[in-house]
Design goal:
alpha+beta; Lipocalin; 2 domains; 43% strand
Amino acid sequence: MRSSIESVKRHLECLAAAAFVVIIATAQQEVPMLRYEPPPNFSRSAITPPEDYSSNEFNASLQVYPFRSISGEIEQMFRKTLLREWIDPRYQETNVAGQPEFRRTTVRDAQMVLSARFAENIAGIPRQHLRMLILAGGAAAIVDASANNMSTWQRALPALNTFAASLRVEAQTAVPAIAEGPGPTGDAVAGLYMGTKPKYVVNLNRPVGYGSWVTTLHFYIFSADGRVYRAYDQLSVPRGDVSRFNFDAAQRADPVNSGRYTLTSNQLRILMGDKPPETITTPAPKENRVVIDTVVYLRQ
């Protein structure tokens, strides 16, 4: 009898453990995603990550860094270092003037949001910064805005406030692992897709820092086995055969614009670049067209 009771206890413990594993596995299938409407009159750079926006009217910019897993006392780390190491080297502050001003704020469906307002001393001119730490589901995202001086910051505020009001956290199915592919549906997606989008072109006839945005061709190429690459201007596909495109060479030469894709529930999910990767979720291609970041791409 005693043996029978012990056997039942062990069986129940195994069932409980199995249920716990299922719960964990189910939770791991979803990751938080930061959604928003881009700030008005700002243009998005093709260089990612982060998702990078620059004002079309004055010297102000905004970067959105995707959620990443966290450990330790992330709030204390933010208060101590502003998580500067998470910031792209192009936008890292070098000389913070005075103490940052920290405030609690809100973003829809986020667990906690902490903002830091601070100035960076650049040759005696205080460059203005606002950085937000957004926590959800055991992960953290960063939003970082800056302007070259207080006057410019005041001009940028209406657009930045509009952007901030649109911020929200959504739970999404985990992005595809780099080894995953689309399966049999890849044959239906494979091809070269062409669209048009803005590209920043440096003006070599003027001093450093001068340039302009021009609208030019932009391409995505998808393989049948789940690989993807994107490029501006012209993307050569030998004899129009996607299977002949050298994705390995593209990966070595341009890893930021190389990645993998998969199809899940009629959605195209792209994992592009690394450290951290850029993730793109959009409706699956239909009738030889796909929309990525509001740009319509047509299959060639």
